[in-house]
Specification:
By secondary structure, the chain is of the alpha+beta class. It has three helices and three strands. It has a three-stranded mixed sheet with strand order 1-2-3, covered by helices on one side.
Length: about 80
């Protein structure tokens, strides 16, 4: 069962924004709203959803990591 991405992002700040946007106030609301966020080839899956508190913790940890860790490599298009 493939889930459609909730968001496709290209940077650390976009990833944090997408995680915060996917957050819900209560656990009951979060269970009804699973999230899948794609950054390059990385897939951040939250099948149980995200509460505001958990999203804040994840965002905090992401912002502590170097932005270069989230850089998506440029892929050339067409023939060289």
């Amino acid at each position: 069962m493939d889930q459609e991405p909730t968001a496709v992002v290209h940077s650390q700040k976009q990833l944090v924004a997408a995680i915060k946007a996917a957050a819900r106030l209560t656990y009951a609301e979060a269970k009804d709203a699973p999230a899948l966020i794609v950054l390059g080839k990385a897939r951040y899956s939250f099948p149980e959803g995200l509460t505001d508190r958990r999203a804040a913790e994840i965002a905090h940890n992401i912002m502590r990591t170097s932005a270069s860790a989230f850089r998506v490599p440029e892929v050339p298009c067409g023939n060289p």
